[in-house]
Amino acid sequence: MLHLNSSRSISDPSDPDAQLTANNGEYLVNISLGTPPFPIVAIADTGSDIIWTQCKPCTDCYKQVAPLFDPKSSSSYRTVSCSSNVIGCGHDNAGTFSPKGSGIVGLGGGPASLVSQLGSSIGGKFSYCMVPYAAAKPTSTMNFGTNAVVSGNGVLSTPLISDPSQPTFYFLQLEAVSVGSKKIAFQGSSIGGSGNIIIDSGTTLTLVPTDFFSQLSDAVETQVSGGTKTSDPEGFFSLCYDKVVCLAFYANDQLSIYGNVAQQNFLIGYDLPKQTLSFKPTDCTNT
Question: What pTM did the predictor assign?
Fold first, then answer.
């Protein structure tokens, strides 16, 4: 059993919400699992479907600060087949995970995701507002249902493009990126007619084809005046300035990804029945 918050004073108390916390390249969402509810903090990831957490006994788990979920302590725990849409227990886990997190909450378009499992109760709607990593207040709210509708002045919407062969991903059609007065056309790579870039809250950087990245870097370098270029101490980023402020894009000729740094300080709403994605410039520390 999975639990979300419903403690805020909102127009419809049946619409859940959850706290979202910026954490060094990722955003963690607070949820609870089991009976009685056991709190966990996991990566909010629109680029995957499965909901899972590290569980006892752990054969090989990455280090996490919070206690491990113990299935034996939950009366609603059941062993089910791998083809079932349930919440998973990880006993042998690898990857570059922060010790502050204990798993992943998949928010993708596939049948196993949290959004799909909540189903008609949220009307296929959810939204989030990602605070900058360096914000003094690192938290904001993720909404589901009627409170996830993004409206008002400054809202722009674009089609969400689905691909039945890759139901997890939310595809977009990116036409261009503007740097100052320069507009750089984006070709990307259409995948089965499903747009040319995916939006992914679980990926930090925005990944674009090498040719486009070169044009973008040149345009940014031309636009930035008075800044002193410097090298990235980690040797990862190619364009950095002064106190090591770097362009958060990376060249990748496989799948193009609209990462979470570029999503910061926008209220972003997903309306799956209408197949639209809406953006509203917002100070996310106030949400």
Answer: 0.92
